[in-house]
Amino acid sequence: MYKSFLIKYGEIAIKGKNRYLFEEALVRQIRYALSFAEGSFEVRRLQGRIYVDALSEYDFDEVMEALSHVFGIVGICPVVLAEDEGFEALVKEVCAYFDRVYPDKHKTFKVHARRARKNYPMDSMELNAALGERLLTAFPELKVDVHRPDILLCVEIREKINIYSTEYPGPGGMPVGTNGRAMLLLSGGIDSPVAGYMIAKRGVAVDAVYFHAPPYTSERAKQKVVDLARIISRYAGPIRLHVVNFTDIQLYIYEQCPHEELTIIMRRYMMKIAEYFAGQDQCLGLVTGESIGQVASQTMQSLAATNAVCSLPVYRPLIGFDKKEIIEISEKIDAYETSILPYEDCCTIFVAKHPVTKPNLRVIERSEQRLGEKIEALVETAVETAELICVEAERTE
Ligand code: ATP
Ligand code: MG
Q1: The overall pTM is greater than 0.85
Q2: Which of the residues 131, 298, 321, 363 has an alpha carbon 20 to 30 A from that of 309?
Q3: Which domains does the chain have, with CATH numbers?
Q4: Quick check: 330 and 339 in contact, CB under 8 A?
Q5: Counting atoms of ligand 1 from 1, which one is nearest the CA of 348?
Q6: Which bound ligand lies closest to the C-alpha atom of 339?
């Protein structure tokens, strides 16, 4: 029934000179998202607005679903675009719109006209009054309510006349690609996919690194991480996922270092390796799913100890979230069901009975000295043998 959608965007409009770049990125992300919906679409910018035009048949819910993944969109308005053929033609168009969209006329309404083109013969006040009157004549059951109308009918006089009255909420945030790129440490758990989603919401493109430990962790555990990356990529766009074989490093640390320090030392090596790939992919920071106090390796002392090996900033979008809040987002983005699949994680395999909860950085560094030069060689091998998987969301054919 609608051939076009008017895309409303908030925050990005205030970005002054950068506005053009933001709109470009938004258009690009909308195109990407719509490539997952059946049908063919045109996305265009016109006078500070973005329109999606359907060039073929399409499924309304599918388009809404696709657009709900595009950060930067605040609202989606199905819109009728009418040619300006005089006031009487406009009345006809508006009445036809109303009739089609609201079969039940026992409603209150208000017309909200805007004249973006000043050469139109009536101003917005005149339009409000005249269109309101004509609607009341056409549909006597209607009532006007200027304060809290059931229906706010927007009529905007632009190059074409925009008629719309419903706005579906978008996800907010900023278009991906407007705030650089970051490297996400992605495990198969609940937290890190949510962290990836959160950073993408602020316009940051995402690459990822996953550490697995075959044969201690299975192929299915790895596939689960690929699936999670695919879920994030619906929001974040294509993701380069680096899969690092961490087994030899883990075994060697296990052999050389006190077991209660194992997790911290392992995590420090994860960060180092992640930083290497971050450099390769031009990432401006690392991202983890850590939240203060969640587990022993996420106390303030532990976070300080892992942080100490990084020269890039480490972003932890979930730092102040409770598990319950994280799960809510995980469910909202459809990651939860995948995250809770019970495959083993490399961190849990060699985990100590009583890990240190307040590691002392100097003590940790001293333990690491036992690793000698051999650890450098192991890290080098891990980096060199890493597998690169380019993950994209699945398309409907
Ligand atoms: P998650 O649910 O994200 O796995 P978690 O609560 O299990 O988090 P940890 O296992 O301590 O917490 O991991 C903390 C963070 O370290 C994760 O959020 C993730 O960013 C990173 N991380 C942990 N294990 C891995 C792994 N195998 N590969 C990549 N990153 C990892
Ligand atoms: Mg985990």
Answers
A1: yes
A2: 321
A3: 4-169 (3.30.2130.30), 181-391 (3.40.50.620)
A4: yes
A5: 10
A6: 1
